[in-house]
Design brief:
It is built from 12 helices and 9 strands. By secondary structure, the chain is an alpha/beta fold.
Length: about 300
Amino acid sequence: MNPVEETYRLIKKYDIHARKRFGQNFLTDSHVLEKITRASGVGEGDFVLEIGPGLGTLTRALCEKVSGTWDASDVGAEDPSPQKEARGHVLAVEIDYDLVDILEKEVMPLYPQLEVIEGDILKTDITEISKKYNNGKPIKIVANLPYYITTPIIMELLEGAAPVESITVMVQKEVADRMMAAPGDRDCGAVSLAVAYRAVPYLAANVPQNCFKPRPNVSSAVIRLDILDEPLVHTEDEKLMFKLIRAAFSQRRKTLVNAIAGSAELDISKDAALLAIQKVGLSPTVRGEKLDLKAYAKLADALRKS
């Protein structure tokens, strides 16, 4: 079965128009599809959590990967038999109830290893999913994310304590550049430090606009994040550290002390922020974008003690 041809068939059959409020763009390129599945490292017997399956283009390929039947050189093969014993498992979480209905009618009957649920991944307990489907072991996440929600989802996955082995995502090229950026780089942002804290990033492919329907206004990229066994640095208060990072990068033009004091997430006075900044050996006029993870960890610990 050719997943891309199936996508076109479903678009025509159901007269589907991408919903802007969900940031929908449907993947329509077999070569990119293979790059995503190859980059993900998904193999026979794996459990995979797919975020935003859409019309099931990537979903079909993942189902065949976990059952050991996917071969990019053999697109157009006969439909898999519903009676075939399921190996591995794909759990797809989709926020659009209309697409869930289509997936349940058109895709699930062909793949006994597939389960589709309606839901918002930001409100989904991934730890519980790991316990239920994978005996609590780290899971592989694969997604073609709506670009407006990419950074919040990635931040949520990296800041949380859910057992995750890897995250392979299609993202806006600009976001991929930020994920790969080092502290001090022009592209560095809060997501850059979140990635560095929990993962090793790998840029798998650049993807042009003509690989989607409708065609987006920006270029895309496939990136894989291999989750570290232990965070890159140690801090006594991880949540506080990320609040400091978000405060600093949401107000780039301000000095770090003013960004902390002005953050709605933090209840820290300017005097307390200044004292902690000086205590860890930083300049009172330093901007947050200049700090690396180690400095943020030290600052979080100093503020926690005070």
